[in-house]
Amino acid sequence: MSNFLSKLTPEQSQALYDRAGFWLVKDLPKGSLVGIDGSLNQVLDFAGFKLIPPSLHLIVLSPPGGTSLDEVLPSPRTGTLYFSHPLQVVTRVWSSSVDSLKTPTDGPDVVVSKEVLKGLDTKLAPYPIDRWETWKTLFPTKFVDVGKVERVLGKEGSVGGWDLDGFELSSRVEEEEGDMIGVSLGGERVLRHRSEKEGKAGADLTRSKDGEPSGDGIKWAMFDLKRSWRQGAVGEETTTFARDKSWLFWHVVQEQCNGDLTLLLTQLALLLPLSIQLQTPSLLCSTYRRVLYLITNSHLHLVPASSPYLTVPQPGALSSFYLDFIQLLHAQLSWLPDTFFQEDLPEAENWFAQSITQDLQRGLKTRFDNPFSTLTEEKDWIEVKDRWLALSALCGDKFGWTMDTSAAAAGASDLDEDEEDEEDRPVVVEL
Fold first, then answer.
1. Which of 129, 150, 247, 420 is a Cys-bridge partner for 424, taking CB atoms 3.0 to 4.6 Å apart?
2. Coil, helix or strand for 188?
3. If we measure between CA atoms, which residue out of 403, 361, 367, 393 comes closest to residue 382?
């Protein structure tokens, strides 16, 4: 970024300064780790970021673990996710007593003059503009806007945006798993989720201070992949949808996303960068993985009238959904470091690769093995296939993943290596 600024004339620098956004923070301890949109640096005298372009940004902070600047083990990361706008100045205060960001005592709407900004200039880190083009591809505006993010993360705070804590996000994943209460019924393990017991379609993963569910909290889609057929299903229907997740896909879309297909993509778009930047691998290896598996193992709904037990509410929307889904995967995998699956999270490589090179491929083969009703429909799906081929090429070049040409004949992959066959899996009921 410094090289970029050095190439600007004084007039260009001033014009940029007058149009860009600013994010200010007070009282952040010296030696903290601070980053924005994937960058991360240790700072000594830091007052915020300047020249922030309009987009969705993720700022992460981690104060030093001790009082010495030589401390090498940082505290868990907290962060704030917010939409930046031209000329916007966001001011926050770091509270060392609770290790979190707070709203300034003079309120969220405090006006910061240009003179104050210029006085802070040497303490403001310029936005790493070389990261912006790649970063913003992670959040397509088609399914990542304020309204959709609010439906997942709850209402924005008083200063705009969403404050997030790595420990808290991890604990909510654990809470989700803990809410799946195992009950032995006639030798079968039935898992009931608390939200079903209370008559709720979805699950609110945030709690108020008294421990009750909060209406404005984080709401990831929650479902059990091992109970993927409708209540009351028997015989062939149970067997079919134990293997294929199409019924469960639409059940989740209708009951937890209010019929909005793109809300699943909103969740995938948020989960991966939040997991990596806030150092919460459980978000990726549990919640993200589950949504990815649901999408890539739903094949029957790609073919009209493929099952008498399946009703697809929006068949015409599927080609557009898969086009956006594959493009999102391409953006996410392009953003990851080349060594991510070797050095950062090797336990994620097998299931991630299988979802793309086997499961998703089988779904597309299912679609192309059956006739299209119109030339327009066929053209739409050819575009999906072309985009998937581009994704496969990226995976091969970057991570060494190759397409499994025998995938079409393979069965659906298990989430756990030692799981039973699909027919013998425990019956699981969503809560």
1. 420
2. strand
3. 367
Q: Hey, what's the torsion of the CAs at 92, 96, 99, 101, to 10 degrees?
A: -10
Beta-bridged to residue 190, according to DSSP, are: 183
pLDDT per position as a tens digit, 396-408:
999 999 875 444 3
Query: Position 287: which residue type?
Result: T
Q: Which helix (H) or strand (E) holds 21?
A: strand 21-26
Element containing residue 35 per DSSP (H, E) = strand 33-36
Indicate whether 141 belongs to any domain.
no
What does the buried/exposed string (b/e) look like for 71-85 if buried means 16 or more CB atoms within 10 Å of the residue's CB?
Answer: eeebbbbbbbbbbbe
Query: Would you call 201 exposed, middle or buried from its count of C-beta atoms within 10 A (0-12, 13-18, 19+)?
Result: middle
In a domain, 139, yes or no: no
Task: Provide the strand spans (E) within 151-219.
Answer: 162-165, 180-185, 188-193
Is-contact 125 131, C-beta < 8 A? Answer: no
Same structural domain for residues 316 and 182? yes
Tens of pLDDT, residues 334-368: 999 999 999 999 999 999 999 999 999 999 999 99
Locate 221 and state its tokens.
Answer: 């889609």
**pLDDT tens string 43-69:** 999 999 999 998 999 999 998 875 444
With beta carbons less than 8 A apart as the criterion, state whether 227 and 196 touch. no
Sign of CA dihedral 384, 386, 392, 394: negative
Residue 138 counted as domain residue: no
Distances (CA, A) of 118 to 22, 26, 88, 115, 237: 11, 16, 15, 5, 67
Full domain range(s) for residue 80: 2-131
The answer on 194 and 95 residing in a single domain is no
Do the domain assignments include residue 137? no
